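Fold it.
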Amino acid sequence: MRRLLYVAILMLFMGACAHGEKAIVLPGLSGIKTVYMWDADGHIDLSLLRGLKAAASKEFRAKGILVSDNPSATEAYVKITVVDANRDDTTGTTFVKAHLYVISAADNQTLYDKTAETHIKWGRDEAPAYPVEEEVRKLLSDYPAAGVK
């Protein structure tokens, strides 16, 4: 019975982590001033992938972090992976679930790790679009601005 209780607690903990409500943020993150954005992946819609990468670059710049085109001249690497995404014309909804992580260039340690999901509803006359700006804001909501500890 006790073993079953441990399994249930472990499953609840893993479920909470899978929803990405809280990010893993390690102390070394506050010293990162330059990042390199790897191409986003995990989905076949190139507009979604390009949109996530552009929105993440914009959000990092707003936090005072330089986004470099040179992976050799950065302190960390950023990767966004699309876990799931779809646009449903019948219900008028768009959904994106993505995973963003930041890895130290010095020792390959994961400094930041978060999964988030965003749903939007649009009207009949509106063209459906992925909510990349909202998604990236959620993914980076726990990421500190440059110099903030």
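Residues 80 and 100 are 4 Å apart (CA to CA).
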